[in-house]
Amino acid sequence: VDVAGRPCRTIWLDEDDAAIVRIIDQRLLPHRFVVVPLRTWQEGAEAIRSMQVRGAPLVGATAAWSLYLAAREPRDVVADAAAGLQATRPTAVNLRWAIERSLADMASAGSARERCARARATAEAICEEDVAVNRKLGEHGVALIERAAAKSGVANVLTHCNAGWLATVDVGTATAPTYLARQRGIPVHVWVDETRPRNQGAALTAWELGQAGVAHTVIVDNAGGHLMQRGRVDLCIVGTDRTARSGDVANKIGTYLKALAAHDNGVPFYVAVPSSSIDWRIRDGLREIPIEERGGDEVSGIEGMHGDSVTRVQLTPSDSPAHNPAFDVTPARLVTGLITERGLCSASEKGLLELFPEHARDAG
Amino acid sequence: VDVAGRPCRTIWLDEDDAAIVRIIDQRLLPHRFVVVPLRTWQEGAEAIRSMQVRGAPLVGATAAWSLYLAAREPRDVVADAAAGLQATRPTAVNLRWAIERSLADMASAGSARERCARARATAEAICEEDVAVNRKLGEHGVALIERAAAKSGVANVLTHCNAGWLATVDVGTATAPTYLARQRGIPVHVWVDETRPRNQGAALTAWELGQAGVAHTVIVDNAGGHLMQRGRVDLCIVGTDRTARSGDVANKIGTYLKALAAHDNGVPFYVAVPSSSIDWRIRDGLREIPIEERGGDEVSGIEGMHGDSVTRVQLTPSDSPAHNPAFDVTPARLVTGLITERGLCSASEKGLLELFPEHARDAG
To answer: What is the mean pLDDT of chain A?
Structure first.
């Protein structure tokens, strides 16, 4: 995606200094665009924990690059780094996927130098594959938008949270079909859920759609059901942090409510699922996917721009406690279909295994 | 309800000066408790429009007091005042109800003085009846909380927006059963939906529950479905701005999403309905209840406390538009029951008419 007219990814190795990985500090968007360096795996882990980077695919890519930074160190810290990175956030399965892949690629290296080279190659491959996979998601998903536009004049797509360029290395998952539709001149408009408490929709999705020139409107998380009742949403496309082999989808808190509303109003509800976010080991998403609980301070206050500075304001009475689950699980029965890099399928074990038969025996 | 230990209503005639009606400027809560005077009907209309006062019953009471202020004027401005007040906000039916009642009571007055006395008596009666009705809602609803507490140890009640003391003259509608449960020593805990964009839950409901010593936890609007999936909500109780004779319920935007989640998880979903908020003239809530659309600035920014001052921060990119419907309609099929001042009934014309047979012939 272009930022201020220039192509930009969300994570990259510094062109001149192979000791530095660069990321965008997404906590400052949409108000400030600041690139920060990662020099150690601990800085990578902290970037994930503090949500300078977020989004399941980008969290995975950041873990892979952090393991590369670990492999550069003179002492052998890779195992510590893997454990430390794995502990940063519990819900997105891409973290485990990227760490396991990187460790496997490093395992048979003959020397520390070779191990480092392999870690770098793996991180680069994960990033390139992410972009390629997302382009495929776009190609498979754009037909849904094209069909809706043919019917309604303009395809009105509702999305929750940010499963865009900023949640991945580039292109995005849920946004990929939208960007492709825009390129192809298909009329598309996106309803952007604010996505409290961290406002990734209002802050990140709105910003990146604006950068890409995609028509969009921000709404509060409460509004989507009403819009669907009034026929103002043609389809929903969201991302996922972990999808069970049954098609149960863990995604940002509130996704489940939108899926219920879509189901109640006959609005197709699709999930963009790169295979890196499928957890082939589990079937029951509601019982088996760990849901991160974050601090109540994300609920009791919020950051925004006041004058020239990013300012936090307190929203609740100071003595009112808050509870902050970060994800929820949408049962497969509410999902119209999954958009994967190998095509569309039903949200079911059968549907997924038709596209990914190599995982038939992975269930735990 | 007590504020800082002293009983307080949300609207009252000044004890010493019958030319002044006093209200709480609710836009400043929970950060500041400020009482402001209304001296003209225009100030009353502006208080409703600017949401210094809000909540269907309190909007009705404020309209009645504003008509009293109009009736005090030397020129005959009552008809103008009625039209001006009616135009302030479209969704809550209590506004129409209070205005029509006050006009009817004034209609046969023999003199300007008598008309003014009648307007005052009507406003006083509307306020006293509101409190009495809300106490009845509490008595009829507390059994639901008692039953949940007997089953779960603590009754976990989820509510949306503010249908509390602050939305009425006193006691509240949806909160009335909770306050009564607290008085009776029944263990109760309230999940308070933040209720973006205006955060009446996080700002008002949390504050008044805190004042009353009711255990509560603030959550973002996205979280309720997840909590219901996990069995952490025993029942929902919300208010209403207008309920059709069919039982379709207009309430704050996002109510519909919670009703869907409650239905999907077998959680009872009740609406506290003082009869003043029933629109007996309409049947189809989705088609016939006008939904207010408010400014996008309520979505793109938010106010909160920063240091010592109430500060607005911008949340969205400055060039991203926002859309802001203020209410939605929950179809009667998703509502377990209505709590009225005459008892509980099903959300249906049959259920309502069994309690209110005098309205059998009101349908338009």
So the answer is: 97
- Is the peptide bond preceding residue A30 cis, with omega within 30 degrees of 0? yes
β-pairing, B337-340 vs B269-272, is: parallel
A308 touches chain B (CB under 8 A): no
Task: Say if residues A308 and A318 touch (Cβ distance below 8 Å).
Answer: no
> A254 in contact with B at a CB cutoff of 8 Å?
yes
Say whether the ipTM exceeds 0.90: yes
Candidates A191, A194, A261; nearest CB to B196 = A194
Spell out a b/e string for B21-30, using b for 16 or more CB atoms within 10 Å of the CB, else e.
Answer: bbbbbbbebb
Dist. CA A312–CA A49, nearest whole Å: 19
pTM to 2 decimals? 0.97
User: For residue B234, what are the contacts with CB-CB under 8 A and spacing of at least 6?
Assistant: B148, B151, B152, B155, B156, B157, B267, B268
Give the one of A218, A257, A325 whose C-beta lies nearest to B299's C-beta: A218
Q: Are B254 and B221 in contact (CB under 8 A)?
A: yes
A143 CB-near residues (< 8 Å, 6+ apart):
none
- How do B215-219 and B21-24 pair as beta strands? unpaired
- Find all residues with CB under 8 Å of B146, minimum gap 6, and list them: B155, B181, B184, B186
A360 sits in the region (left: phi over 0; alpha: psi -120 to 50; else beta) called alpha
Please, what is the end-to-end C-alpha distance for chain A in angstroms?
Answer: 38
CB contact under 8 A, B320 and A210: yes
Residues of chain B where predicted confidence (pLDDT) is lower than 50: none
Task: Output the CA torsion B112→B115→B116→B120 (10° steps).
Answer: 180
Report the distance separating Cα A137 and Cα A339, nearest Å. Answer: 6
pLDDT in tens, A173-185: 999 999 999 999 9
Q: Distance (Å, rounded) from C-alpha A68 to C-alpha B306?
A: 41
